[in-house]
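Notebook p. 47: complex prediction with nicotinamide-adenine-dinucleotide.
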Amino acid sequence: MRLTVFSTKSYDEAFLEGANAARGHSLAFLEARLSRETAALAEGSAAVCAFVNDCLDAEVLKQLHAGGSRLIALRCAGFNNVDIEAAAELGLTVARVPAYSPYAVAEHAVGLILTLNRKLNRAYNRVREGNFSLDGLLGFDLHGRTVGVVGTGKIGAAAARILNGFGCRVLAYDPFPDAELQALGVRYASLESLYAEADILTLHCPLTPETHHLIDAAALERMKRGLMLINTSRGALVDTRAIIDALKSGQVGYLGLDVYEEEANLFFEDLSQILIQDDLFTRLLTFPNVVITGHQGFFTHEALTNIAETTLANVTAFETGHGELHAVTAPKRAAASK
Ligand code: NAD
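Predicted complex, structure tokens below:
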């Protein structure tokens, strides 16, 4: 089956070609991001492969359908960038990679916690400049601290297990509690309790209309002063303006982001020779207690291998009607990503 791959980076091509060796699909790699302006490039391609910042709104889907596409094979877990209802109306199948390595993202979230907690970003720069002073690098033990995990699906559960291993008191909020986590000692509580009790809050729920700006000014006010907030899920879970105000007032003591509301215009590109025009993003970069990575939580060898394998297995399953097709259906309001 012909598959046009949008937003291709060299690593996507390498892993997808590797996984395709035994399958024989015809892959066309495009660097362009999928948008209303580029959708026509997929004309004649029965399947389209897209990533997190590709635009799959109703208009783009209509164009893809008119060009002969029938399958959208997402090479990611989240599908907030796809108008699922419009796809269903057009008769387009949307498939995704529901699980590739929850450990990759969970470990990255914990990496951000440890970086902030022990100020490793600042220590790294100091030592490189021959500055071995410890002033300003005082950290705190994770052991005994209360961590709130919002969303205990695959990634949140992996993060909760790691943090449990550190000796943290792990509180969780999810409409669907995980009995195995409860058996480990993780306690489910209301979002309000997490806000009131957590020293560290880590977000692992999907972005849906209900969770858009889940962390806004009102939510931040209800949190413990000096809280550490970690977001490796989707940028728009957090209201950037509100978080900047909370950083300035000290209400938020540490912020670790792997995702950002307006990341589509920034991430996955080398912009080091260009002046960044996003003033909110550049403001975030000025805080010494903020660490940002450019959506690299998924970026491990294991995850990329699994992503490529499942993406192409989805294409084969769609083409042959055999094997598991990880199709996405419109989320029920309460059970967002289940
Ligand atoms: P998952 O579907 O396994 O788990 C999501 C969990 O969130 C579910 O248990 C669900 O019940 C829960 N949930 C839904 N709505 C909620 C709400 N309002 N409050 C609390 N919990 C809620 O998904 P996953 O594989 O664990 O991925 C989680 C998110 O991580 C994805 O939606 C995606 O946005 C993000 N992600 C980021 C990266 C990265 O590279 N940074 C990579 C993969 C996934």
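Notes: DSSP finds twelve helices and twelve strands in the chain. Residues 77-78, 102, 105, 150-156, 173-176, 204-207, 210-211, 232-234, 258-259, 295, 297-298, 336-338 surround nicotinamide-adenine-dinucleotide (CB under 6 Å).
Next step: compare against the earlier run before touching the bench.
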